[in-house]
Design a protein that fits this description.
about 325 residues; alpha/beta; UDP-N-acetylmuramoyl-L-alanine:D-glutamate ligase; 6-stranded parallel beta sheet; 14 strands; Carboh/pur_kinase_PfkB_CS; 1-phosphofructokinase
């Protein structure tokens, strides 16, 4: 089973526009879709759609629309009851897939609620193969929260510790790279380094700089997969197990201690890029759970991401909607 943890879930509303976004003007939507979201929730949705067992862990009142949406889509979850409503995120999509996102901050949780959320995750992840820590953090959370959670999972593992993946951004992602977490009462030991990081190109540039790699922008890494692989290799050398870096329409690179690969997919008619990266992570985990080699895990990740981009809103694809045979894998140098 794969457990996902979303500290800042959302109700995702996607508004499709008939043409380019026109600032300051009135535009009529072509369609509006609404799904339960947040990065971890999206990963669980994609895994369940493909027949894999997954459990989403998140905060939220029992009556919250986000939880109601999970029930309607038959995605198993456990939640920590809170009084405040979960946030709503809005994505505006233009023809061709250009997407503008407006994300609310989410409800703040007190220190005792943060601790209760961690304990709920620890209880729920016993026997899991992977735990995915994903998304932004709500207001008031320490930036090292994910590193602390990873430490706590490993301390409670008793020899059966699940693998840990982190998909976040900014300071929480940087803290996950160091593996030092103590903001919720844990002791800083450096044991919170993840087995897998899933940045996009911009996030990879920030991680690589923190790992001592020559400065590069996200645009530069997205345009040059070889440079992206070298940047990811610097992150792996810092002690992370593997880096799966999505590069938009350029595909994705996977770097481990043993190799580096680029995966590309033929162009698709992009409808919405919302959740494409989350679907890519789900595809990787799906293949990993089936015992696939690293390059083939990357293959399924890119197939899932491409399929998601061709679907409306934050719709996630099932594995039968993906085309892994269309993906080209190229071995790369790591330095």
């Amino acid at each position: 089973m794969i457990v996902t943890f979303t500290a800042n879930p959302s109700l995702d509303r996607t508004v499709a526009l008939p043409g380019p976004l026109e600032r300051g003007e009135v535009q009529r939507a072509v369609s509006v879709r609404q799904e339960s979201g947040g990065k971890g929730v999206n990963v669980s949705r994609a895994l369940v759609a493909s027949g894999l067992e997954s459990l989403a862990v998140l905060p939220g009142a029992d009556s919250d629309p986000v939880l109601a949406g999970l029930r309607e889509s038959a995605v198993p979850f456990v939640s920590l009851p809170i009084d405040e409503p979960l946030r709503t995120n809005v994505a505006l999509t233009e023809p061709g897939g250009v997407t503008t996102k407006i994300n609310e901050p989410g409800p703040a949780l007190e220190a005792d609620q943060q601790e209760a959320l961690i304990k709920l995750l620890l209880e729920s992840s016993r026997g899991a193969s992977w735990v995915v820590l994903a998304g932004s953090l709500p207001p008031g959370f320490p930036v090292d929260f994910y590193a602390t959670v990873a430490q706590r999972i490993r301390e409670a593992g008793n020899g059966t510790t699940p693998l840990i993946a982190v998909d976040s951004s900014g300071a929480p992602l940087a803290a996950a790279l160091t593996g030092d977490g103590s903001g919720t009462g844990g002791t800083s030991t450096g044991s919170g380094k993840p087995d897998l990081l899933k940045p996009n190109a911009e996030e990879l540039a920030e991680l690589a700089a923190a790992a001592g790699f020559a400065p590069a922008t996200g645009d530069e890494l997205e345009a040059d997969p070889a440079a992206a692989a070298a940047a990811a290799a610097a992150v792996v050398r810092s002690g992370v197990g593997a880096v799966l870096a999505t590069l938009g329409s350029k595909g994705a690179v996977l770097v481990t201690a043993d190799g580096a690969w680029l995966a590309t997919h033929p162009p698709v008619a992009a409808v919405s890029t919302v959740g494409a990266g989350d679907s890519a992570l789900a595809g990787y985990l799906l293949a990993h759970g089936r015992g696939a080699a690293p390059a083939d895990c990357l293959r399924q990740a890119v197939a899932h991401g491409a399929a998601a981009a061709s679907l409306p809103g934050s719709t996630v694809p099932a594995v039968h909607q993906t085309t892994p045979d269309a993906v080209t894998i190229t071995a790369l140098r790591k330095d």
